[in-house]
Design brief:
Distance between the termini: 54 Å
Largest sheet: 6 strands, antiparallel
CATH topology of the largest domain: Ribulose 1,5 Bisphosphate Carboxylase/Oxygenase
Number of domains: 3
CATH superfamily of the largest domain: Ribosomal protein L1/L10, rRNA-binding domain
Number of strands: 10
Shape: elongated
Helix content: 10-25%
Radius of gyration: 26 Å
Strand order of the largest sheet: 3-2-4-1-5-6
């Protein structure tokens, strides 16, 4: 392990012992033993996060990992510009769509400079946290909350459109979104298009893996059920009779962890 790669605070955790005066050691596997402070009760604080080993692993996985399709498990790859244009053309024939470029994803801030820069570039609309806005009147965002910001590159009414127009909007959106764009139909769910991470069997795109994709402390990497804690609290209600609640003798639902059973409940 190269201790110089870690920051100063985690570096102080390690106690570097002097080397033993021997010529060689065989049959002894290397090991690292770290005593985590017992006074910490934060479930998101583990040995790997304290020592920053977890940070280095997340960067490593994002850099050298091979993405696979979450549906079929096959390796994803690139898709051509023409296939994206044809897919958007078919979507626009059925209902009005908007082509968006994702700019910020799950980042904290107010993004006042970003809104002003988009206005100067000639863009009129954007979508912030799922709500479409006019860039002339940007919202006041909470700087301490995470936000998603997408700029509207083009708006297409239902019907036939010129492939050249959609091709130009696609190129702009891919450039602004760093290889990703979103098509938002008026009466349907968003469809993500990725230039480099596309499954040709399932016809879906996935976001580019980043270090936050492997973090249980980030909304982009944590489990949506347990939120990265490894356990979840759910409501349990008896099928035939309500379980006795432990408040004032009343009956009602109890809160227990998944996998646990309530003794005496039938």
């Amino acid at each position: 392990m190269i201790l110089s790669a870690f920051a100063a605070p985690p570096n102080t955790i390690y106690v570097i012992l002097t080397l033993m005066q021997v010529d060689s050691i065989e049959g002894l596997a290397p090991a690292v033993a770290i005593d985590q402070p017992k006074q910490s009760h934060n479930p998101r604080s583990i040995v790997a996060t304290i020592t920053e080993i977890y940070d280095h692993l997340r960067v490593l996985f994002a850099a050298i990992g091979t993405p696979h399709c979450p549906k079929c498990g096959r390796e994803v790859g690139a898709q051509t510009r023409e296939s994206v244009i044809q897919r958007i053309l078919s979507l626009a024939r059925e209902s009005p769509v908007q082509i968006l470029a994702p700019l910020e994803r799950g980042r904290k801030g107010q993004f006042k400079e970003l809104f002003a820069d988009l206005r100067q570039q000639g863009y009129a609309h954007a979508r912030v946290d799922g709500r479409f806005i006019h860039l002339t009147e940007p919202p006041e965002l909470d700087r301490y909350r995470r936000h998603n910001v997408e700029v509207v590159v083009d708006r297409l009414a239902a019907g036939a459109h010129s492939p050249s127009r959609i091709g130009e909007a696609t190129d702009i959106a891919f450039d602004l979104g760093e290889g990703s764009l979103i098509v938002a139909p008026e009466d349907g769910e968003d469809i993500l298009f990725s230039r480099n991470f596309f499954c040709h069997y399932c016809q879906i795109s996935i976001p580019e893996p980043t270090h936050t994709s492997f973090s249980f402390n980030s909304p982009h990497g944590m489990c949506p059920t347990c939120e990265g804690l490894g356990e979840a609290t759910v409501a349990w209600v008896a099928a035939q009779r309500p379980a006795p609640a432990l408040v004032s003798g009343r009956r009602g639902p109890l809160w227990i962890r998944p996998g646990h059973t309530l003794e005496g409940a039938n």
